[in-house]
């Protein structure tokens, strides 16, 4: 792989042919992922907090109890998004500069741990090529509000600091260029997660669809096609396959 990091995608085996032959990528809606857990419990890919920013706040007690009656104990901001995720492991960021064998083994075991559906791990020859195709296709959508789409690694932080982190990344990181600072809740909802999920190593492409975009996506079952991926896709059938394809140095001590 030629991107300087390990990029993997977990593909439902039933749709592997379409993924490789047509570059068919599933951009699931955050609402769908919330519904999965809300209706079926904490199983599979459901997440009741997907695409939701829930800032924590407490009343200081300065005012009487009567004055705080009717005030919410929780607030939630939602910003509609359709997301496509890959796993990204970057030397010197998520790991030390030398990635140990056990890091790759644990990553493989984690990806394969969910047995709710048949899955195949796909790696990429050069994910920069795949990424450029994704962005080109997302550029054909109109988008909602001040931008069409964003891409970035997910940031994992203490939930009490999500708002602060979102504002900081909006100010400092070029991948968020064009996102008004005041819209930090959008980033907190879609690109900042509780640090307990840090082992997911997510990199996300998020499309923010307007009403017309949403209808277009629904017609294609929330799938977007970016073209044949046969020259880029590497099927990972085992841990040994992954070890052979990852072109990094391993400290096996």
Notes on the protein architecture:
By secondary structure, this protein is an alpha+beta fold. α5 packs across α6. It has helices spanning 16-22, 30-40, 101-111, 127-138, 162-172, 184-190, 211-219, 239-245, and strands at 6-12, 24-26, 28-29, 52-53, 77-78, 82-89, 119-124, 149-153, 155-157, 192-194, 202-207, 223-225, 233-236. The radius of gyration is 20 Å and the shape is globular. It contains eight helices and 13 strands. It starts with 5 loop residues before the first strand and ends in an 8-residue tail after the last helix. Strands 1, 3, 6, 7, 8, 11 and 13 form a seven-stranded antiparallel β-sheet that branches.
The proportion of residues in beta strands is: 15-25%
Mean pLDDT over the residues: 80
Count every helix, treating DSSP H or I runs of 4 or more residues as helices.
8
Largest sheet: 7 strands, antiparallel
Query: What would you report as the Rg, rounded to the nearest angstrom?
Result: 20 Å
Number of E-type strands: 13
Unreliable stretches (pLDDT < 50, length at least 5) are 249-253
Element-by-element helix/strand order: EHEEHEEEHEHEEHHEEHEEH
How far do the termini sit from each other? 24 Å
Globally, the shape reads globular
Quaternary structure classification: single chain
Helix content: 25-40%
Name the structural class: alpha+beta
């Amino acid at each position: 792989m030629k991107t300087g990091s390990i990029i993997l995608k977990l593909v439902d085996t039933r749709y592997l042919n379409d993924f490789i032959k047509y570059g068919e990528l599933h951009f699931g809606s955050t609402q769908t992922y919330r519904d999965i857990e809300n209706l079926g419990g904490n199983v599979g890919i459901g997440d009741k907090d997907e695409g939701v920013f829930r800032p924590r706040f407490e009343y200081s007690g300065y005012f009487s109890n009567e004055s705080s009656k009717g005030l919410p104990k929780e607030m939630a901001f939602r910003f509609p998004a359709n997301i496509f995720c890959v796993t990204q492991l970057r030397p010197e960021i998520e790991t030390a500069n030398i990635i140990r064998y056990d890091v790759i083994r644990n990553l493989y075991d984690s990806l394969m741990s969910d047995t709710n559906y048949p899955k195949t791990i796909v790696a990429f020859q050069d994910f920069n090529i795949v990424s450029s195709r994704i962005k080109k296709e997302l550029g054909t959508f109109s988008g909602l509000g001040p931008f069409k789409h964003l891409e970035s690694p997910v940031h994992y932080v203490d939930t009490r600091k999500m708002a602060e982190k979102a504002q900081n990344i909006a100010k400092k990181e070029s991948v968020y260029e064009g996102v008004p600072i005041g819209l930090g809740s959008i980033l907190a909802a879609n690109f900042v997660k509780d640090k307990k999920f840090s082992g997911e190593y997510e990199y996300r492409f998020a499309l923010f669809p307007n009403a017309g975009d949403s209808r277009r996506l629904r017609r294609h079952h929330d799938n977007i096609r970016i073209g044949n991926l046969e020259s880029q896709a590497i099927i990972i059938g085992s841990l040994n396959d992954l070890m052979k394809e990852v072109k990094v140095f391993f400290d096996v001590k």
